Amino acid sequence: MRNDKNKAILLRKQGKSYNEIVKILGISKSTLSLWLRNIKMPVDIKRRFWNKARKKWAANIIKFNKERGKIAKQKAQQIQKLALRDVKKISKRELFLVGIALYWAEGFKKSRWAVVFSNSDPLMIRLMMRFFREICRIKENKFRAIVQIHPNVTSQKAINYWSKITKISKKQFQKTYSRLTPSSKRKRAFNVLPYGTLRISISDVRIINKIKGWIMGLEKFV
User: Fold this and answer.
1) Is residue 134 part of a domain?
2) Separate counts of helices (H) and strands (E) for the chain
3) % of the chain beyond a pLDDT of 70
4) Position 185 pLDDT exceeds 80
5) How confident is the model at residue 182 (pLDDT cuts 50, 70, 90)?
6) In terms of Cα–Cα distance, which of 151, 154, 155, 222 is closest to 190?
7) Is residue 75 situated within a structural domain?
8) Number of structural domains found in the chain
9) What is the pLDDT of residues 147-174, one digit of tens each?
10) What DSSP string describes 44-83?
11) Cα distance between residue 30 and residue 17, in whole Å
12) pLDDT for res 181
C-alpha cells in the first residue's frame, strides 16, 4: 500500500490526472484523493496538465456540437419531409397566384414597357417561366435573356446553363456582362453564384400592365 502511495504521488507530480492514476494503479478514487490531498504539482507540470485538460475539454465541446448539429439536421430533414407532403401538384390558379407574388417580390415594377424578372435561383426561374408561358401566354420569340456573370464563370458556360433551365433559345440571349456590385466585392465567395444571375425581359406593354394589375389585386388582401 505504501509503495502504491509513493507511485501515486510520483505520477501526480509527473502531471497524471486522477483518472489516469486510478487506472494505472487499480485503486479507488477516494483512496487516491486521500493520498494526494496535500500534494502540489510543480508549476510547469501544473501548466502542462491544465493545457492538456483544456485541449481535451475543447475536443469534447467540438464533438458535442457536431453530434448536436447532426441531430438538429436530422430533425430538420424530418420536418421538411413531412411538410413536403403538404404541397401537391399546383393548379393553374395556384400557379397564377404564385407567379404574381414572385413578380411582386423580385420583378422590376417601375418598367412601363417590359416585364423584367431577375434571379439567380434556377428553380425560381423555372417556376417563373411556367408562369410566363402558361398564365401570361408569352410567345417564345418574345423572350430575351441576359446573364450577369462573375469572374468564376465563362459567358458561354452561363448561357448554356440558363438556356437549358429556361428553354429559351441561345440566339435570344443578349451580350453577357460581368460586374460586381460594391457590396459584394471581396465579400462574396467565388462559388456562391456558379452561373451568375439571369434577367428575363419581355417587351409587352399589355402584359406588364396586366401583371401590375394582378399585384394590385393581391394588395387588396394585405
Assistant:
1) yes
2) 8, 4
3) 93
4) no
5) low
6) 151
7) yes
8) 2
9) 998 777 788 999 999 999 999 999 999 9
10) HHHHHHHHHHHHHHHHHHHHHHHHHHHHHHHHHHHHHHHH
11) 14
12) 55
135 and 175 together in one domain: yes
Summarize pLDDT for 111-127 with one digit per residue, the tens: 899 999 999 999 999 99
Question: How high is the pLDDT of residue 178?
Answer: 78
By residue count, the chain amounts to 222
Report the distance separating Cα 64 and Cα 4, nearest Å: 36
Domain annotation covers residue 87: no
With residues binned 3-state (H G I as helix, E B as strand, rest as coil), the percentages for the chain, rounded to 5, are: 60, 10, 30
Q: Are residues 76 and 98 in the same domain?
A: no
Domain boundary among 27, 59, 81: 81
Cα(210)–Cα(206) distance, integer angstroms: 6
- Domain extent, residue 9, equals 2-81
Which of 81, 112, 147 is the last residue before a domain boundary?
81
Higher pLDDT, 180 or 162: 162
Query: Of the candidates 131, 133, 140, 141, which has an alpha carbon nearest to the alpha carbon of residue 214?
Result: 131
In this prediction, residues 26-33 reach a mean pLDDT of 86
- Does residue 43 lie within any of the structural domains? yes
Both 113 and 183 in a single domain?
A: yes
Q: Kindly tell me if the per-residue pLDDT of 179 is higher than 70.
A: no
Only one residue has cell 420583378, namely: 107
Read off the CATH number of the domain in which 100 is found.
Answer: 3.30.1330
In this structure, which amino acid lies at residue 211?
Answer: I
